[in-house]
Design goal:
Elements lengths: L2 E12 L2 H8 L1 H21 L2 E6 L3 E6 L5 H18 L4 E15 L2 E5 L1 H9 L9 E5 H4 L4 H4 L2 E9 L3 E8 L10 H4 L9 E8 L2 E6 L5 E4 L6 E2 L12 E6 L2 E6 L5 E5 L6 E3 L3 E3 L4 E5 L12 E8 L1
Parallel strand pairs: 4-6, 11-12
Antiparallel strand pairs: 1-3, 1-4, 2-3, 4-5, 6-8, 7-8, 9-10, 9-19, 11-13, 13-14, 14-17, 15-16, 15-18, 18-19
Helix pairs in contact: 1-2, 2-3
Organism: Panacagrimonas perspica
Pfam family, one: FHA
GO molecular function: adenylate cyclase activity
Length: about 300
Amino acid sequence: MSEHRSAAVMFADIAAATELRHSVGDRQADAILDPLLKAMTEIVIRNGGDVLKSDGDDVLAIFDRPRTFVDDAANAAVECQLAARAVGRKLYTGLGAGVIEFREVLGRPDVSGMPVNMAARLHKLVPDLAGYIFLSAETVAHLRPEIRERARPYGVRPIKGMGAVDVHTLDWDEAVTIVPTRFALPATSQTTMIVALGLTYAGQMLRLETQSPAFMAGRDRNNELRLHDDEQRVSSRHLKIVFRNGAWILQDTSRNGTWVRFNNNSNQIGLLGDELKLVANGRMCLGRPFADDSEGRFTVHFELIKK
């Protein structure tokens, strides 16, 4: 027997748990991961939810309190991220909300429906990039205003079995906020003529002229700028820079994204398959947010050379 009712779903997966088990063995890994899983379970319950499944390194939680279930799931997701960070771990997290089918399978409670699939697809939307809470614009619309204002557009993404989905992130840590391009661009003078773009990386200084061919950066040796990354979060052909219609355009072509910060704006702009006009001097971080590159090994500085 089954029933349908409105609820929210949270998928949360501890990043690099499999690698940890291979490195230190199951017993020691359990000693590290189990306290975090216990804390996540307590967080879910405290926010009015139930943990439906917990399988070694992940949690599937359901929230169905009337009127507050979406807020409950969002609050739990934020608290779980903070709990993970406190012990040096990161989470992949996805949220979904809507009408869910509750049923029993082989005597155990189970759920199904579009919100469950949405949360499952979103929690690892970007491979190898943990530390974010992904949710759809439809889910964002059901958050109360003070939580909704922390949602940031991430862009329309093709989601398997669901078509194009307007994806948002929920800001839980200002240090890793992804800001939509159209809201983050600083002002630039319309009378200034840009004649070149200067790039600085690991002591290298490169100058791109407006008539230069497309400039590629990534791990591949054939790129104009090659970056070495043992974690392979930098893609082989990670990004392209071209001069088009009087402006330098950065095009992300990677699997894990590129982050940009202009010098006169503290916000980060997260790109994944997107492009961005470089309208001021700044820096870009390949394959990870700036907070994950404290040594600057994957950060390229850029400077607009004007006439």
